[in-house]
From TrEMBL:
InterPro entries: FPG_cat (IPR012319), FPG_N (IPR035937), H2TH_FPG (IPR015886), Ribosomal_uS13-like_H2TH (IPR010979), Znf_DNA_glyclase/AP_lyase (IPR000214), Znf_FPG/IleRS (IPR010663). PROSITE patterns: FPG_CAT, ZF_FPG_2. This is Formamidopyrimidine-DNA glycosylase. Gene3D superfamilies: 1.10.8.50, MutM-like, N-terminal. SUPFAM superfamilies: Glucocorticoid receptor-like (DNA-binding domain), N-terminal domain of MutM-like DNA repair proteins, S13-like H2TH domain. GO terms for molecular function: 8-oxo-7,8-dihydroguanine DNA N-glycosylase activity; damaged DNA binding; DNA-(apurinic or apyrimidinic site) endonuclease activity; lyase activity; zinc ion binding. Keywords: DNA damage, DNA repair, DNA-binding, Glycosidase, Hydrolase, Lyase, Metal-binding, Multifunctional enzyme, Zinc, Zinc-finger. It catalyses: Hydrolysis of DNA containing ring-opened 7-methylguanine residues, releasing 2,6-diamino-4-hydroxy-5-(N-methyl)formamidopyrimidine. Its cofactor is Zn(2+).
């Protein structure tokens, strides 16, 4: 699932590759993916791409005239940049993983794709992303740029276990399942620690860990081609998706425990005083 660093890298790639080009055609193959109807996709033809950026995990592509294509890639969505398309024929609706295709004036362009059967990728053509895209108005401060005071107020303002608080887009925008594991490992904090019980020093450490982990990931990702970003994301991970492997910091085995509707990975020696966390969901079932 793309998180802040990957979306930042996709935006950087589009700024480098697509800005300055005009749209030849915007094709929609998955009508459930496009959440808006005004302006129509046909209204984008002839417009120049003037910028690409993001709001948390939302990618925002700006066309001249102030129209934006905003995309939430969700769990299995991705952006594939094509130097050329094999066929000039418009996409057939409802077939295959391509939801939206944008063809540019130099023959290149990009596809928004979604693997799997659960279709959750969401695209919006809007003139005002903050007002018109559900979710953007509710985003908390950006996790990459929040200063320590803003970060502290955000984290302490929502009482809960740190794993859930960091992933809550209304608290901090941009962090998902993978980078929350990495940030908590870098901060040497338990994923189950309560946000409102952190000392000032722990909050400062958590802020610094967030900056370090996200900046490192952005640094590794930016400049990579979109197709290589997924592998790049995985290569930098110390605990996420590494259950049973040695922690690169201390050598202890990375462990996994269920959390909400998913699972998290952590290092007991680095984060929980050497004690494995109890799997609360499992113990509830057993009892
Ligand atoms: Zn460790």
């Amino acid at each position: 699932m793309p998180e802040l660093p990957e979306v930042e890298a996709l935006a950087a790639y589009l700024r480098d590759r697509a800005v300055g080009h005009r749209v030849q055609r915007l094709e929609v193959a998955s009508f459930s993916a496009l959440k808006t109807y005004d302006p129509a996709p046909s209204a984008i033809a002839g417009k120049e791409i003037v910028d690409a950026g993001r709001h948390g995990k939302f990618l925002d592509i700006t066309f001249d005239g102030g129209v934006h294509l905003v995309v939430h890639l969700s769990r299995a969505g991705w952006l594939h940049y094509r130097d050329a398309f094999a066929s000039a024929a418009p996409l057939k609706p409802g077939k295959g993983p391509i939801a939206v295709r944008v063809r540019l004036d130099d023959g290149s362009g990009f596809d928004l794709t979604e693997a799997g059967t659960q279709k959750r990728l969401a695209a919006y053509l809007v003139t005002d992303p903050a007002a018109m895209v559900p979710g953007i108005a509710k985003l908390g401060p950006d996790a990459l740029t929040a200063d320590e005071a803003t970060f502290a107020a955000a984290v302490r303002g929502r009482r809960g276990q740190l794993k859930g608080v960091l992933k809550d887009q209304a608290v901090l925008a941009g962090i998902g399942n993978a980078y929350s594991d990495e940030i908590l490992h870098a901060a040497k904090l338990s994923p189950f620690a309560m946000s409102d019980r952190l000392t000032d020093a722990q909050v400062a450490t958590l802020h610094e860990a967030t900056q370090t982990v996200l900046n490192d990931a952005v640094g590794r990702s930016v400049g990579q081609k979109a197709a290589e970003l997924k592998g790049e994301k995985r290569s930098g991970m110390k605990v996420h998706a590494r259950t049973g492997l040695p922690c690169p910091v201390c050598g202890d085995n990375v462990r996994e425990v269920s959390f909400a509707d998913s699972s998290l990975q952590y290092c007991p020696t680095c984060q929980t005083g050497g004690k494995p966390l109890a799997d609360r969901r499992l113990s509830r079932l057993v009892r």
